[in-house]
Automatic annotation (TrEMBL):
A Gene Ontology molecular function term of the record: DNA binding
Superkingdom of source: Bacteria
Protein name: Resolvase/invertase-type recombinase catalytic domain-containing protein
Keyword Chaperone: no
Domain Resolvase/invertase-type recombinase catalytic per the UniProt entry, residue ranges: 11-150
Active site: S19
One of the GO biological process terms: DNA integration
Annotated family: Belongs to the site-specific recombinase resolvase family.
Pfam families for the chain: HTH_23, Resolvase
Annotated PROSITE patterns: RECOMBINASES_1 (PS00397), RECOMBINASES_3 (PS51736)
Keywords tagged on the record: DNA integration, DNA recombination, DNA-binding
Length: 211
């Protein structure tokens, strides 16, 4: 965020992401430049092998300040699934960071709330809930199949002691909890629950003891 003579200046930022080699990163970047976003304020993530490098989004979320605006070509570029995207939309809104989708058929601009933005976010929430129900149904089916074969169905620990310690250190260093959770493939509530386990054990167990 820039400042001149005591006046806070909004910075236009941008996030571009591709998750397959068939997607065109240049098209997204060109759209951001056409929207007036300076090149140094365009943050990029792209697929590398089997993993998604999310350093661009992490850096963007750390840099953005209240009053700044984040531009994306479409809302689905912001997150890897609907639930993650919806969480980020809500988190950015709570932080006072505006979001604008340049290429979605429904106009999305949280700096100027209107029917289009409200409808797009409502649809995103609805599809995120449908996605969650579908995942729960798949999990229930898989659990039933295991039980029928006499296999264990207990859920393993989401994070081990080393991963919990690393997550705690990242947050202490200023990382956004929502992004840490996304990088670890867990929900925000799961991350907080695992961090509580880490802090509780750290207070009662010898240093170096793991799960």
């Amino acid at each position: 965020m820039a400042s001149s003579c005591g006046t806070v200046v909004r910075i236009d930022l941008a996030y571009c992401r591709v998750s397959t080699t068939a997607q065109d990163l240049a098209r997204q970047i060109d759209a951001m430049r056409a929207a007036g976003v300076a090149e140094e304020h365009v943050y990029v993530d792209k697929r590398t092998g089997a993993n998604m490098d999310r350093e661009g989004l992490t850096a963007l979320l750390a840099f953005a300040r209240p009053g700044d605006g984040i531009n994306v070509l479409t809302l689905d570029r912001l997150g890897r699934n609907m639930r993650e995207t919806l969480n980020l939309v809500h988190d950015l809104t709570e932080r006072g960071v505006f979001l604008r989708a340049l290429g979605d058929k429904l106009a999305v601009d949280t700096s100027e709330p209107g029917p289009g933005t409200d409808m797009a976010i409502a649809l995103l929430a609805m599809f995120a809930q449908m996605e969650r129900i579908y995942m729960l149904e798949r999990a229930a089916g898989a659990r039933a199949a295991k039980e029928a074969r006499g296999l264990p169905t207990g859920r393993p620990a989401k994070l081990n002691a080393t991963t919990r310690a690393g997550a705690a250190q990242r947050i202490e260093d200023g990382a956004i909890p929502e992004q840490v959770a996304a990088d670890l493939g867990v929900s925000r509530s799961t991350l907080y629950r695992e961090l509580r386990k880490y802090r509780d054990r750290a207070a009662t167990e010898p240093v170096g003891q793991e799960d």
